[in-house]
Write a structure and sequence with these properties.
Elements (H helix, E strand, L loop, with lengths): L1 H18 L6 H11 L4 E3 L30 E3 L2 H16 L4 H12 L4 E4 L6 E6 L5 H9 L10 E6 L22
Parallel strand pairs: 4-5
Antiparallel strand pairs: 1-2, 3-4
Helix pairs in contact: 2-3
Length: 182
């Protein structure tokens, strides 16, 4: 009876801490990152031409550091960023890139009307429109990872459409596929 209880407890914690991405801990997300071949850390650019801000000759500040990230250092993602990266990568590998399915997934992942994908039907770019400026955590992921789903060979871009556009069909499109908004 005790052995059965221990096995049951182990399996419950394994499902909670590893298998379920929504409740996985750092170890579980690390397992998922190995399975999905995605890094959960971002390396600062080597040979970056960006200047770090600071005071004095070597841009040093009061505690001998600067406000920038030194080239070659590693930036770790927060637990929620790791979850989002894992979910996007999992969908990228297993989901279909049809726009209506991607939109359904975005609605499930980010919430109602937070973002939608638009395909201009010319095999150039899939554009992701965000109804409001994404959080800093999401912008960091969008800037450092290529995880937004799309068909092979098609580019991706994302924009913030803060105000609704006027149009006659879904997503505010008009006769020549444009809209009156910005």
């Amino acid at each position: 009876a005790l052995a059965n209880q221990r096995i049951s407890d182990f399996m419950d914690s394994w499902v909670r801490d590893v298998l379920n991405v929504d409740t996985a801990n750092e170890f579980g997300l690390a397992v998922w990152s190995r399975i999905l071949d995605v890094n959960l850390q971002v390396k600062a650019e080597q040979g970056s031409t960006k200047q770090n801000f600071g005071f004095g000759a070597n841009n040093l500040n009061f505690n001998r550091g600067n406000f920038g990230t030194p080239a070659g250092s590693v930036i770790s993602l927060t637990l929620e960023q790791q979850r989002l990266v894992i979910k996007l990568r999992l969908y990228q590998l297993t989901g279909r890139a049809a726009v209506f399915e991607v939109n359904a997934y975005l609605k499930e992942l980010l919430g109602d009307d937070a973002a939608y994908a638009y395909d201009p039907l010319n095999m150039t770019f899939i554009t992701y429109f965000f109804s409001e400026t994404p959080s800093q955590q999401l912008r960091f992921i969008l800037s450092n990872y290529d995880l937004l789903p799309r068909p092979a060979g098609v580019g991706v871009q994302w924009v913030v459409a803060a105000r609704p556009s006027f149009g006659f069909s879904p997503y505010g499109l008009n006769f020549n596929r444009g809209n009156f908004g910005a």
